[in-house]
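Researcher: Please generate the 3D structure of the following complex. Treat every line as part of one assembly.
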Amino acid sequence: MKPRTSQRTGYFTESVIREMTRLAILHEAVNLAQGFPDFPAPEAVKQAAIRAILDDVNQYAITWGAKRLREAVARKIGRYNGVAGVDPEREVTVCCGSTETMIASLMAIINPGDEVVIFEPFYENYGPDTYLSGAMPRFVTLREPGWRFDERELAAAFNDRTRAIIITTPHNPTGKVFSREELAFIAGLCQRWDAIAITDEIYEHILYDGVAHTSIASLDGMRERTITVNAISKTFSVTGWRVGYAVAPPDLTDAIRKVHDFLTVGAPAPLQEAAAVALDFGPDYFDDLSKAYARRRDLLISALSDAGFRCFVPQGAYYVMTDISAFGAPDDVAFCDRLIREAGVAAVPGSSFYRTEGGGRQQVRFCFCKRDETLHRAADRLQGLGGKG
Ligand code: PLP
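Model: Done. Output below.
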């Protein structure tokens, strides 16, 4: 008999994170696994979406994105990311969330046998994304506590087959924010090996302790070899809206637009109008966002530390990676299972962020994009877990 499913679907498993959400619902656990806010989206963004629907912006938008949104993206990347003069007609593509933006970008540039360098631990989609696009991933490990990469190891991962490197800054799951020096080192390798930097900057506005966000596209010589992937999902607490975008030089944009058109035709038209309004919010919104997340971060870290976890304090994004050695659990999966069943808190086993055998076996990720009351409920449940830390 012929196999009924494609080989490529055999290379990866279902999402561990979404499976943890399913278990959280089943066991009525506090869900600190999947990174979606449980508090309302900003009123002005919701009103803009309602207005657009009532104004009958209800048919297909231009496939590569509503003009108004592409113009707002170009303004934003000039203002915030230091990439001036982006042409919204030739360098911006709107997709369905950064998830589609990433896979469309990879499919636009990958040929069979090409390699893509990925830092591990990594946001779990990148593994399947590379396989679906036909690339071979090459993993380079970020090591705790600072989650820095070894320059020699990274340099050794590049070769003639390297087509791209995926960077996530601020980083999920570790909360690392790549420094300008680290990005300059990566840029040098991209230039030496004629590789493209694909940078996922979806957490660019969630930053702590005065740490600044640097976009690799703003470094000398990198704009023409960078695809910047982003979305409104996290910054505006609208993960269900599915509006993301790629900013890339015109030749890459042409290819991304073609893939995107045949994958999804377009992102939701009225929500694109609301996204344009959101991107033009003033600095106060973004300051308040970081401040509110810093408070939630501190609340969760204090609860986790009291319970016996060793926390790696994030510089950005809304996750805490922890070390669970103090609990004496056989591994992260068994620990998360116990955490859901006994304590009623869902988290993500660290190993789901690694491909290297044994990676993340004593690590667990928690998210803190939740209301204070949710975090307090989790804190209460975490007490008495029996960590020796
Ligand atoms: N990129 C990173 C690093 C993420 O953490 C997530 C969601 O958790 C996504 C992309 C998905 O973004 P979107 O909902 O816009 O597809």
